[in-house]
Amino acid sequence: MSIVPLSAALLTFVTAQRLSELVIARRYTARLLAAGAHEVAPAHYPLIVAVHTVWLAGLWILGLDQQPILPLLGIYAVLQALRVWVLTTLGQRWTTRIIVVPGEKLVARGPYRFISHPNYAVVVGEILVLPLVFGLVAFALAMTFANAVALFIRIRAENAALHSGP
After folding, report:
1. What is the pLDDT of residue 165?
2. What separation in angstroms does the CA of 118 have from each of 38, 43, 92?
3. DSSP secondary structure letter of residue 101
């Protein structure tokens, strides 16, 4: 197996990004819970983790020796800018879990002015586009399907929690 330097750098970046986000999310979750928030529907969280773990591991296994397709890498870069917009809009309210803060209003600025779940829209794009960057069409489709199943469960649980009132 020959390692393509750009592929290795990209996969290292995405891995570091995801791991750092888990650390940040854990910190924000702890702060929110300490301030009186509560977690809703945690049973599906292992499914979310599994989908992202399989996606990332699959990219390392299947994509490391592939030359990235630069126009698709550009699309992925745009998705990263959108990810930053979502995360900065939510600030310390962003977590990887469904955390409800009693009495807090839903965020209605930034990308949330346009769609209800911009973070999930970005994740859908990432799960599809990054495998395509490496030419992994079948993997992109399989992971997009798995992610769609996980997000179907997740978004229903989140919508129920967010719209249930105080």
Report:
1. 57
2. 22, 23, 16
3. -
Strands in 4-132 per DSSP E? 38-39, 99-100
Mean pLDDT in the chain? 95
User: Helix (H, G, I), strand (E, B), or coil: what is residue 126?
Assistant: helix
CB 47 within 8 A of CB 153: yes
For residue 140, pLDDT over 60 is answered with yes
- pTM for the whole thing? 0.93
Residue 138 to residues 6, 18, 58, 104, 134, Cα–Cα distance (Å) = 22, 23, 12, 42, 11
Paired tokens of 51: 């989908």
DSSP-assigned letter for residue 112: G
